[in-house]
Amino acid sequence: MLLPSVTILTALLASAGVVGNPVAAPGPTPAPSLKDTIIRRAANCTFSGSIGYSLASKSKTSCSTIVLSSLTVPSGVTLNLEKLNTGTNVIFQGTTAWGYEQWEGPLFSVSGNQITVRGDPGSILDGQGTLWWDGLGGAGGKIKPKFFRANDLTDSILEGITIRNAPKNSFSINGVTRLTVKNITIDDSAGTSNGKNTDGFNINNSDQVYFTGVKVWNQDDCMNVNSGTNIYWTNGFCSGGHGLSIGSVANGTVVRNVTFENTIMEKQQQSVRIKTVSGAVASVADISYSGITINGGTDYGILVDQSYGGTKHEPTNGVTITNFQLRNITGYVDSGATQILIECGSGSCSNWSWSNVKLTGGKQSTTCLNKPSSISC
Ligand SMILES: *[C@@H]1O[C@H](CO)[C@@H](O)[C@H](O)[C@H]1NC(C)=O
Ligand SMILES: *[C@@H]1O[C@H](CO)[C@@H](O)[C@H](O)[C@H]1NC(C)=O
Ligand SMILES: *[C@@H]1O[C@H](CO)[C@@H](O)[C@H](O)[C@H]1NC(C)=O
Ligand SMILES: *[C@@H]1O[C@H](CO)[C@@H](O)[C@H](O)[C@H]1NC(C)=O
Ligand SMILES: *[C@@H]1O[C@H](CO)[C@@H](O)[C@H](O)[C@H]1NC(C)=O
Ligand SMILES: *[C@@H]1O[C@H](CO)[C@@H](O)[C@H](O)[C@H]1NC(C)=O
Ligand SMILES: *[C@@H]1O[C@H](CO)[C@@H](O)[C@H](O)[C@H]1NC(C)=O
């Protein structure tokens, strides 16, 4: 089975100008058998240019390292690296560009066990968002594709990736267990006036996701946890967006043990936010933010909203929010903004512990609802 298909692959690669790097064996070794040579030749595969797209999808399980070198992906298709072999490495080099089409995406998708997806220095995943951005985001106008689907990964790593100008949401992390996300840059700063719903990271139904050294310039949540457990974020930077958010928490979901620390939040709509869907029954527990510096906020510094998607300012109490800890939350909001707004349902918010929450600028709210008595608005 294996030999013929690899042989065909090798012929295909050779005819298409795809490079399979031979392995430099250490020291003298016996001449490899034909079979070994072919398999080893196929181990490191480089796909490039406009032909690389279809070859990469076809031969992805024959390569232990997949180098995507200055690939151009046709419009309206996913660069599909789902169901990779265990232990596969994917490396982006140069600029990877996707063509314009109105569709839902994703532009890229990866899944598997022990997968590493790395961006080499200087590499860029260019979503060409300016071709879609119309100020309407996901709510209308052009249909905009999501960018990077990281679903069904276990024991995996995303690192060194730079995304520029995402049409809409950048990373969708769903059904993942033990994923490290480090040194990622998302730069949608060109979308300041017309970009919308360009979320950095959306997390759903995932366990043990660790973020470090992530920088995001965008126009929606920097990172949000819709559902999931044991999630940790440190040493981040977020500019222009809607904060580090829990939710919107939907009916029947659980969010537990999420920590955000040591992050600079610049020019956000709000920086620290828990939003739960109006009428939902769910649980949010053990949420901690510490060492958060807020450099400007147009609407709020800290916002807890239990009326999301329902009647504004009429929170419902089916989602409990317990053990919500804030430590060292400092900085300022804009002059028209409110420092802290808490709108909890009756009895749904309890056991909160806040210390050294010191914001300046804007105004203090007089309309907080059902907040735990130890907390000041
Ligand atoms: C494949 O390429 C990667 C990245 O360039 C390199 O680290 C690795 O040693 C290569 N492996 C083989 C089997 O050639
Ligand atoms: C982060 O990733 C970028 C892009 O790949 C790279 O140039 C840089 O060296 C990385 N930084 C660290 C600390 O790994
Ligand atoms: C979240 O995950 C659940 C369960 O896997 C799935 O049914 C739902 O569609 C996902 N939601 C989003 C927004 O991806
Ligand atoms: C909370 O999550 C962190 C990060 O994943 C983990 O180290 C810690 O053990 C978890 N705590 C509990 C009580 O599960
Ligand atoms: C929440 O889910 C429960 C159980 O599936 C269902 O009975 C209820 O109608 C749902 N509520 C809302 C507001 O969707
Ligand atoms: C809060 O800040 C103080 C003073 O800078 C520092 O000693 C402490 O470790 C910080 N605590 C947390 C949880 O960030
Ligand atoms: C209340 O919060 C404290 C920490 O602030 C935590 O140790 C404890 O487990 C929480 N209790 C409940 C019932 O959530």
TrEMBL record:
- EC numbers for this chain: 3.2.1.15
Q: Which UniProt keywords apply?
A: Cell wall biogenesis/degradation, Disulfide bond, Glycosidase, Hydrolase, Repeat, Secreted, Signal
The residues annotated as the active site are H242
Query: Biological process GO annotation list?
Result: cell wall organization; pectin catabolic process
- The stretch of residues making up the signal peptide is 1-20
Q: Does the keyword Protein transport apply?
A: no
Q: What is its main location?
A: secreted
Q: Does the keyword DNA-binding apply?
A: no
Subcellular location per the Swiss-Prot or TrEMBL entry: Secreted
Q: Which GO terms describe its cellular component?
A: extracellular region
Do you know which InterPro entries this protein is assigned to? Glyco_hydro_28 (IPR000743), Glycosyl_hydrlase_28 (IPR050434), PbH1 (IPR006626), Pectin_lyas_fold (IPR012334), Pectin_lyase_fold/virulence (IPR011050)
Which PROSITE patterns does the record associate with it? POLYGALACTURONASE
Record field: catalytic activity: (1,4-alpha-D-galacturonosyl)n+m + H2O = (1,4-alpha-D-galacturonosyl)n + (1,4-alpha-D-galacturonosyl)m
Gene Ontology MF term list: polygalacturonase activity
The entry's family comment says:
Belongs to the glycosyl hydrolase 28 family.
Q: What is this protein called?
A: endo-polygalacturonase
Source species of the chain: Hyaloscypha bicolor E
Its taxonomic placement starts with: Eukaryota, Fungi, Dikarya, Ascomycota, Pezizomycotina
